[in-house]
Task: structure prediction
Amino acid sequence: MHPENAKRLPHTADLPPLELLRSFEAAARTLSFTRAAAELFLTQSAVSRQIQQLEAALGVLLFERRHRALALTEAGRVLQRAVVDSLERLRDATARVRSAPLSRHVAVTSTPGFASFWLIPRLARFTADHPEVDVRVSATLEVLDFERSRIDVAVRFVPIARGTGPALFEESVVPLCAPQIAARLREPADLPGQTLLTIDEAEHASTPMVDWGPWLQVMGLTDLRMKNTLRFTQYTDAVAAAVAGQGVVIGRLPLVGALVRSGQLVAPFGESGVASRRGYFVDSSRRAATNPDAQDFVRWLRAEAEVAERP
Result:
């Protein structure tokens, strides 16, 4: 190598060891040596020592050690921005090297209910038109970070006021049950003799029937108490229990519309739903802007939603 070229190369001696920066990024993001250690499969003391080594190498404190808490110093915030930006660039470059030119894919995340009841039954239409595209669906209640989880498209189920990106459809809710139970229900006053099927939503885990709230409020039944309750962590399980004749579930329309059309579930008090003030919105990552297949997927989602909304 020519001596002049050698001078232009970065000197690794000027950089802290990369394993220290990795520990710093995790600790700065979680503001916890314990959580960072669990994420990196290290001990808490090992992460603490690595942060001390990094601070010694830089000659500055990166964290304020408070009672059972951490806070970034100004130097720590500067370093965190640089480290996060560098790691994102490395992830993008690594992904391009790994995938090009063989792999074309779209990574999608949504709630389990949306994936099971709405997306998957329609997905064959997209793959038929795009047979060369690998679609990866991550169905989870966790809000996945676009960059960290390498997600192209997210379908978020959120209150209407918090929706970002194009709206697929707003949600309405109505009680649903198996036909044999519907035969015993003539009016909402008959509900107390039935089993309530409900879900525990993370932010309302201590409040039963939160998913029934909008319908009960409109019907003037906020004090309704049913015979007994079956509570689930997944909406898909609550719906499966309703199909099996185990009780009455709040039906999210148009999500479970196919089950109503097939007769597996019946709306005993009529199919006119009550607006839940929540809806499904499409959000795209920065990488989706350079992924034509992801853009095609978003257009396909919106077209499918328009067809589904037509009478």
User: Anything to note?
Assistant: Residues 107 and 146 are 10 Å apart (CA to CA).
